[in-house]
Amino acid sequence: QITLKESGPTLVKPTQTLTLTCSFSGFSLSTSGVGVGWIRQPPGKALEWLALIYWDDDKRYSPSLKTRLTITKDTSKNQVVLTMTNMDPVDTGTYYCAQYFGTSGYHDYWGQGTLVTVSS
Amino acid sequence: QSVLTQPPSVSGAPGQRVTISCTGSNSNIGAGYDVHWYQQLPGTAPKLLIYDNVNRPSGVPDRFSGSKSGTSASLAITGLQAEDEADYYCQSYDSSLSVVFGGGTKLTVL
Questions:
Q1: N or C, which end of chain B has less CB nearby within 10 Å?
Q2: Chain B partners of A112 at a C-beta cutoff of 8 Å?
């Protein structure tokens, strides 16, 4: 059974750095073709893809946010960490992590999401 | 502004058929990258509905089907049911080496 769960602060101040952790089970991030990505959703708005890390440590970032994002993995702990710098109130939303399959594939298993509010 | 374009809303009566379009460009769908679809029920995480243009994960009813042609793709839902009322998103890959989503379509069952 594959599960993913996001954890991190629920409230951050503007200009601070957000650090989110995705803890997963039921698969290994050392398996060829597998990745873990992050997707966010502002309240009442559409999904926005953020970043992806592959089994071989290859990384992909949203072109519009790449200067603010860093994604890393700890295969031994079954965790993926996303950091986003210089947080702004427009970054408020639910942040999801999800397993990714294939080189140009899809997110087949999702976490429940964690709501992050950016406010002073 | 999403890279993939979807209609903001569609609606249909129970039992009817509806389609949701997803239009991209030659740098994503038109470049040959597959299209995938997700269903998001209110207050829940998205769920994979269609992968690789036409395939359904185990447990997804065959009332849901996908197709792709050129720079566009479509999701069709037949025999519409009240439980299908949700937001639907298409997703593909882009030559900029990033995953791209559509802006989402809200399906209302009348």
A1: N
A2: 45
The three-state (H, E, C) secondary structure of B36-48, written as one string: EEEEECCCCCCEE
| Interface contact flag, B99 A63, Cβ < 8 Å | no
Which residue in the set B33, B48, B99 is minimally distant from A49, CB to CB? B99
16-55 in chain B: CB under 8 A from chain A: 33-34, 36, 38, 40, 45-48, 51-52
Categorize the per-residue pLDDT at B93 as very low, low, confident or very high, splitting at 50, 70 and 90.
very high
Report yes or no: B45 and B100 within 8 Å, Cβ to Cβ.
Answer: no
Answer whether residue B52 shows pLDDT above 90.
Answer: yes
Residue A58 tokens read as 């290859």
Q: Does residue B10 have a pLDDT over 90?
A: yes
Residue with tokens 């970054």: A91
Among the partner residues A47, A107, A110, nearest to B104 by beta-carbon distance: A47
User: Closest Cα partner for A105 from A54, A47, A69, A56?
Assistant: A54
* 3-class SS letters over B32-92: CCCCEEEEECCCCCCEEEEECCCECCCCCCCCEEEEEECCEEEEEECCCCHHHCEEEEEEE
Find, among B74, B72, B81, the residue nearest to B107 by Cα: B81
pLDDT for B46 beyond 90: yes
Give the total residue count for chain B: 110
Residue A30: other Cβ atoms inside 10 A: 12
